[in-house]
Design goal:
By secondary structure, the protein is an alpha/beta fold. About 30% of the residues lie in helices and about 25% in strands. The two termini are about 40 Å apart.
């Protein structure tokens, strides 16, 4: 493995090591850090882009640990992390999570980090990621939605009752999109409630519940209480049968439900919800819009390299006049198209990418799709019909950003899969 191994030439300075890691997080050199214990030491890895990269392997001998009872490197690092996040350093048998608040005046940067710990065979494994507690979130107009998705979503958020479902894996921007919508809808005439864990963006005028599972105050309990308070808008996650059932019950009572679910494509949401006990009638009646999302890396404008794509690549991408029309872009002859690839410079820390872009596919439940959902349907049939009605897939949205020069072909192809019927 391509990593540094620090051995016992000096006793481990935990504060210095963590300060070094935190500063790299503040500089956005990486977005998360994994502290993984093993017998006799700890491996530290960070995420750069999509991949985990080995950063450091520490031996217990470096920590001064011995058979006589000195603290291991795992215990030293976890004790420091837990102290910074006001967690109980003596509790090592159950998972825990907390927030670390840091300030870097020389970088003009304040940083909130989310710490989670998990007991493993050789000690507590810890995970730290950037967590934007209380920081300004993106306004709706700054999300970077393509024109088709923006139109669909703008129409849906002003409807009375029904569900808008945001689909995608962790770190797909679902919470950011939901909160940008709540910012627009926030009105003293409306009763708006959210069930979250944890609350990332405190918002004045909105009743936000920070669910506490350890005392039994789950999202299901919170949403059940919401329904007794005549809510106009609620925000929740569709992660279990009971909460999902309550979400559809709220939608049937003219409450707008902003929901999130871990599903990889818009059309697949129907299968997931049906497997959670939601009837085809409710699926076709109460869902207005499903928006599947991904976050892809934006090319660094200071060092990106232009190139002319090969004929084979253009054929693979099916680049023609129809494609440009579907993507809402002015047509360019294939021979004049320019793509860009990453190179790397000091601004982007050698990665070739700087900042991120939201891509999405927005599936509006039209009368034609309602008929399909009410009868026996397949995910393929739903997706095919939605594309015929104008939906851009994640593949389309990513390709659009590549044509605009904002990302690379390789980046969007990792996240978007072209439907076989497209």
């Amino acid at each position: 493995m391509d990593q540094e191994i620090r051995e016992p030439e000096a006793i481990l300075d935990t504060d210095r090591l963590l300060d070094e890691i935190f500063e790299k997080l503040a500089k956005r050199e990486f977005s998360e850090v994994h502290f993984d214990p093993f017998q006799g030491g700890m491996r530290i890895r960070y995420r750069k882009g999509r991949d985990l990269v080995d950063y450091l392997t520490l031996s217990d001998r470096k920590a001064g640990a011995s058979d006589q009872g000195s603290e291991s490197v795992t215990e030293l690092i976890n004790t420091r992390l837990k102290t910074l996040s006001d967690l109980d350093v003596e509790e090592r048998t159950i998972p825990s999570d907390g927030i670390i608040h840091l300030s870097f005046p020389h970088l003009n940067e304040d940083l909130d980090l989310w710490l989670t710990t998990n007991p493993t065979l050789f000690g507590e494994q810890s995970f730290v990621r950037i967590f934007r507690l209380g920081t300004p979130f993106k306004k709706f107009e700054n999300l970077g939605l393509d024109p088709f998705a923006e139109k669909q979503l703008t129409e849906a958020i002003w409807k009375k009752g029904g569900l808008i479902v945001f689909a995608g894996p962790t770190n797909a921007g679902k919470t950011t999109t939901q909160n940008s919508i709540l910012y627009i809808l926030n009105d003293s005439k409306k009763n708006i409630l959210t069930a979250e864990w944890p609350v990332e963006y405190p918002m004045s005028g909105i009743n936000q519940v920070d669910c506490k599972f350890e005392i039994g105050y789950t999202d299901t309990v919170a949403v059940n209480t919401f329904l007794k308070q005549k809510p106009d808008i609620i925000k929740l996650k569709l992660e279990d049968h009971e909460t999902t059932r309550l979400a559809f019950r709220a939608a049937s009572k003219k409450t707008l439900v902003l929901s999130a679910i871990h599903v990889h494509s818009a059309a697949s949401v129907f299968d997931r919800l049906r497997n959670m006990g939601i009837s085809q009638f409710d699926l076709s009646t109460y869902i207005f819009l499903i928006q599947a999302q991904r976050i892809i890396r934006r090319l660094c404008l200071d060092c990106r390299e232009a190139y002319s794509p090969s004929d084979g690549l253009l054929r693979h991408l099916k680049v023609d006049e129809q494609l440009f029309e579907r993507l809402g872009l002015p047509f360019e002859y294939p021979g004049s198209i320019t793509f860009y690839k990453p190179r790397g410079c000091s601004k982007c820390f050698g990665s070739g990418y700087y900042d991120r872009i939201l891509i999405c596919e927005s599936l509006k439940v039209t009368p034609k799709l309602q008929d399909i959902i009410l009868n026996k349907y397949s995910v393929r049939e739903i997706e095919k019909t939605a594309i015929e009605e104008g939906m851009l897939t994640l593949w389309d949205a990513g390709l659009r950003q590549a044509i605009l020069g904002n990302t690379s072909i390789e980046e969007f192809m990792m996240f978007g899969k072209r439907p076989s019927h497209a």
